[in-house]
Prior knowledge:
Layout: H1 12-35, H2 41-56, E1 59-61, E2 64-66, H3 71-78, H4 82-97, H5 105-129, H6 131-160, H7 165-196, H8 208-214
Antiparallel strand pairs: 1-2
Helix pairs in contact: 1-4, 1-5, 1-6, 2-3, 2-4, 3-5, 3-6, 4-5, 5-6, 6-7
Amino acid sequence: MHIAEGAISGSLSGIAVLASGAALTAAGTGWALARLKEEDIPRTALLSAAFFVASLIHVPVGVINVHLVLNGLVGLVLGWAAFPAILVALWLQAVFFGYGGITTLGINTFSMAAPAVVCHYLVRRWVSAGGLLAACAGFVAGGLGVFLSGLTVAGALMLSAEQFQLAAMLVTGAGIVWAVVEGIVSAATVTALRQFDPNFLQWHAHDGLAEAVATPES
């Protein structure tokens, strides 16, 4: 799901995609940090670390290597705080292991964090119901998060240059297949968290968007 350093910077359209990704990531991160409460910082750090570690564990499948992404699970638990959590994890991966890159940090973060936030708003209410609905929330968040990330990366590649169209189709296809695996892992994780630490799935961060809708200014 990473766009490699220098892969799309060779054209004006590619530079525009990089700049747009950086701007959108900066906006999402700023929105999240402005509403993040102090008591939510440890949980955000923990999910950032989980995202970082999961992305480093590569499993050989045929001629390719695959790895967990967990952005849907991160979004389900953190909401908008997924932006700074994923940003820090991707920055560490780029600096220490060369995954992704610094110039692509913005678009890579946006492609994973934006779908994470979408998943949060779609299924967060299912978690409080517990039981099968909570497991379904984990499955939908995990699968949909990866699938939407694949679509976002594919869109960025196609907007950058025509020669990336094949790569974009491959990313989309891989996202569909891997979404099932992510969904199962996320469903199992949510079920375990509900059993051992239900408070971990309670949202304390300011939900600025929801608050703005629920209580419009007079």
